[in-house]
Histidine triad nucleotide-binding protein (Bifidobacterium xylocopae), 115 residues
Amino acid sequence: MSESTRDEGCLFCRIVAGQVPSEKVYEDGELYAFKDVNPKAAVHVLIVPKRHYADVAELAAADPQLLGRMVLKAQDIADQAFHGAYRLIFNTGRDAGQSVFHVHAHVLTGEVMDE
Ligand code: AMP
Ligand code: ZN
């Protein structure tokens, strides 16, 4: 991958590259999905674009179609895990709880959740 698409210091770039182990749930040419190490629901999957974008707004501006594909992949995961019901979270900014600055969708599913 070229310099512009991969950030060497980025944990999720390293996971996508296979340099850090992960429990893979799904992979294609553009997306990678893996289990969160600290699950907040019965099923907690992170979906990331293979290409590095810092957050969801950066991705939306650069490639809205890929953001749409991430949403549809979340739907697929929830269709299989829990009759299509899920919570989809993009923490954006440190003060909102974002700790990894490679855009990721948290897919929380697999159980009935409080409102
Ligand atoms: P956020 O706080 O929204 O940036 O989410 C980062 C998420 O990455 C957290 O839910 C962490 O539990 C998760 N996480 C951190 N390191 C790893 C890892 N090596 N493999 C899987 N998930 C991770
Ligand atoms: Zn990255």
Notes: The first strand starts at residue 24 and ends at 27. The longest helix spans residues 64-82.
